[in-house]
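Predict structure. Chain length: 107.
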Amino acid sequence: MTDVVSTRLDEKEIKELNKISERERIDRSSLIRKFLLAQIQEYRLKESGERYWKGLVSMAEGATLAKVSIYKMMEYVEREKIQAPSLTDSEMEEDLKKSKKLFDEIE
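Prediction complete.
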């Protein structure tokens, strides 16, 4: 089911939309829908990116929350230069122990 949503735009904005819709070869309503959906996706990525940066979610969880693939989430994190959350000393020590164990098994 779809609902009709209306908004008021200035004449300049309408002209710009008309130009773009001609270039894209789609009607103005479809263009507005395309822009709106892209912005909604960007908003979800931003929210998930902030949660990832704060260490509240993993990359995969962030992608799920944003309703995108993990690859799209990774691209967003790279594009926005979002750093992975810092590990605590105990987490780093645990990771080092796991790495050493794996390395010893290989040899």
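Summary: The chain has a mean pLDDT of 91.
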